[in-house]
Design brief:
This protein is mainly α. The protein has helices at about 25-30, 45-55, 70-80, 90-110, 115-120, 130-155, 165-180, 190-195, 205-210, 215-225, 230-250, 255-265, 270-280, and strands at about 5-10, 35-40. Helix 4 packs across helix 10 (about 215-225).
């Protein structure tokens, strides 16, 4: 079956403004299917993934060549928002960075300065590319990867490392719905602006207690830390974090789950896994040089 070249998208903020269900039981069962959509994968994203893996294979840091490399933990440590980085689980990183990415994006971007989709799908980062074009491209790619990883977390959690992602998502969503106080007619930009006003000087445990698994307050702290950085540095860090999250998830997913997705048209995650196998960066199997080439089609 031919790859669909589709990147499924799920956004946390969108699912916090629900309409009243006409049939409550049906709505509860189908709820998670209401908030996702699909976009075509830009050629520049494929090139970015290929370049990132090539860079890691030539890195002097041996850890970056390993399939269990958790670049997201290093990113969170650099942001200096969390005390116990070693205890941060994978699904926690996905949900945290997803919300922080949205907050930063809608602070930086308006309808007036948002790039056209035709440009986004044709642009590929090159040495001669302007810094502004690279910044805008990576900013848009961060949102696509962010929404894609959230889609996997909600719709295909079996493809990601085990954790309590569903519980964290539900607790975070419940807190967000309470925070927005039932508002239904505000935009994502307006919602992010409201969250940007949250006072993050208190410790998370003082705000939400020890029992709640909500990450809403933590995401506000992370977003504010990111917003203190210069724009180019900020989006470079976020894009690297999402590429590290993507490659870690691809390497940790079981081969039979990858195989099942291939029979259904494939996931970007599975194609990244095959590319990592080509570079010798997976534990499950490796593709010998000269036997087969696993490479994302850049055309």
């Amino acid at each position: 079956m031919r790859w669909s070249n589709a990147l499924r998208q799920y956004n946390f903020i969108n699912c916090c403004f629900e309409t009243e269900p006409k049939f409550a039981k049906v709505h509860q069962f189908l709820e998670k299917y209401l908030y996702w959509n699909s976009v075509s994968i830009p050629s520049g994203l494929k090139a970015l993934i290929y370049d990132a893996l090539t860079e890691r294979t030539h890195s002097n840091d041996g850890d970056k060549k390993e399939s269990k490399y958790r670049g997201d933990k290093i990113f969170l440590q650099e942001m200096d928002c969390f005390d116990k980085i070693d205890e941060v689980e994978f699904d926690q990183s996905v949900l945290l960075l997803h919300m922080a990415t949205d907050f930063c994006y809608h602070t930086d971007v308006s309808e007036e300065n948002k790039p056209e989709e035709t440009w986004l799908h044709s642009f590929i980062v090159k040495e001669e590319s302007s810094l502004q074009d690279v910044l805008e491209f990576k900013r848009e790619i961060c949102v696509l990867l962010s929404n894609y990883m959230m889609h996997l977390l909600i719709m295909s959690p079996f493809m990601l490392p085990s954790g309590i992602g569903q519980i964290r998502f539900q607790d975070t969503r419940a807190e967000a719905i309470e925070f927005f106080d039932g508002q239904k007619n505000i935009s994502r930009k307006e919602a992010c602006e409201m969250l940007r006003q949250v006072d993050t000087r208190l410790a998370p445990s003082q705000v939400k207690g020890d029992r709640s698994k909500s990450l809403l307050f933590d995401a506000c702290r992370l977003a504010k830390s990111l917003q203190s950085r210069e724009a180019g540095e900020k989006w470079e860090k976020i894009s690297r974090a999402w590429l590290d999250i993507l490659t870690f998830a691809a390497a940790q997913c079981r081969w039979n789950d990858h195989a099942e997705k291939l029979s259904q048209g494939g996931e970007l995650l599975t194609h990244v896994w095959l590319l990592m196998a080509h570079f010798g960066m997976t534990d499950q199997f490796q593709i010998s040089q000269g036997y087969i080439r696993a490479k994302l089609n850049l055309n």
